[in-house]
Design brief:
The longest helix has 12 residues, at 4-15. By secondary structure, this protein is mostly helical. It has one helix at 4-15.
């Protein structure tokens, strides 16, 4: 079974872009995210 947090870690390392693995029902305020 795929572990989303491991996939995201690899994507972040490969692309240099912060990636967030979402879960069902997960909510977050976009204005609170660091744009850098």
């Amino acid at each position: 079974q795929v572990k989303p947090w491991e996939v995201v870690q690899g994507l972040s390392q490969d692309t240099g872009v912060k990636v967030i693995a979402a879960r069902d029902g997960m909510r977050f305020d976009l204005s609170q995210l660091d744009a850098s």
